[in-house]
Amino acid sequence: MCVSEDAREIIDWLLKPTSSELRLLKPVFVLLARAAAATLPLYMRGLGGFNRSRVVDGAVAPVVRMASRVMTLRPLRRIGAAASPEAYALRVAAAFGPVPSRNTTVTIAEARRQLANEPGDGAT
What is the pLDDT of residues 9-21, one digit of tens each? Predict the structure, then answer.
């Protein structure tokens, strides 16, 4: 396994939210990033730059459990939807939308290649 450019971009965004609305939630994002890092094997932590001690891992778990309960409260879900409507729409579609038409996942580069090879309607 390796850390792709896309993965690095997501890691950096989680640790340093860029929009002003998300900066208010930065402590939550940092906590979630640390919690996610605690679930990764050590070699993957090294690749992603998430080297944390086992003490930090143990301390993060109960805090994350409480934070996840708080984050599911209706007012905070509404704030999240307002701060990132695209992400909210994707989450809702993934949870409640139709079953995917295929069982494969493609990389962003592969999707771009596929789109470039599709015949267009001539409009740009």
Answer: 877 776 666 666 6
